[in-house]
Design a protein that fits this description.
Low-confidence stretches: 1-5
Mean pLDDT: 96
CATH superfamily: Alpha/Beta hydrolase fold, catalytic domain
Largest sheet: 8 strands, mixed
Number of domains: 1
Number of helices: 9
Distance between the termini: 24 Å
Shape: globular
CATH class: Alpha Beta
Number of strands: 8
Helix content: 25-40%
Strand order of the largest sheet: 1-2-4-3-5-6-7-8
Length: 247
Amino acid sequence: MQKANSQFNKFQSFDGVQIAYTDEGKGEVVLLLHGFINSRKSWDKTELKQDLLKAGYRVIIPDLRGNGDSDKPQNEEAYQNNAEVRDLVLLMNHLDIDGYKAIGYSRGSIVLAKLLTQESRIKKAVLGGMGIDFTNPNWDRRFMFSKAFNGDVNDETKGAVDYAKSINADLRSLHLQQKFQPVTSIDELNKIKIDVLVICGDKDNDNGDSKELSNAFKNGSLERVPGDHNGTYRTKEFSLSVLQYLD
């Protein structure tokens, strides 16, 4: 089934949660995954999305559960057991996708890393804005943000919580997204055989060492481009690096 439109569609996932997504362009499929306190719309005006479409890719962008136009379940069970990863596998099944490339940024990279351990259809992957720290099941930064969106805010998390409130994001869902965020061990990453690019802004060290992350993959590589964590994915340099890698 081939669709090409800028209006979002929805499909029903394994537990009845409705997942919104866009499906634009024709050609080789690329899946884009957004970051925390964000949605598919974060990609809309980026150089990367426009360049992918111009290069002849079919670009699929979901709202991960709890975000954007997807349902925002309030119960813990809806986020446990890698629910977001299961959503993505089912989305690609729903669209009859045989093979694709995948790009994540920030928390989207964390979800993508786990997807790589369970999905044989991905041919190449890009993890943007991420270092090694998410492989630690006791990552203090994840716990800190989980607590923040459950009411325990500190100086480091206040800006994120205030921003989430300003865009009417669902704080309960954001708390649960952090509480049950996928954890992929270094041993699991070691077993991934496809080519993986880790790409980070030169001023982005928010989530640990990106070189260590690239080294965790058998066929990993690292690129640094100008930018900080919140801005790098919007830049032309980021897009050019990704497009060159995907070719």
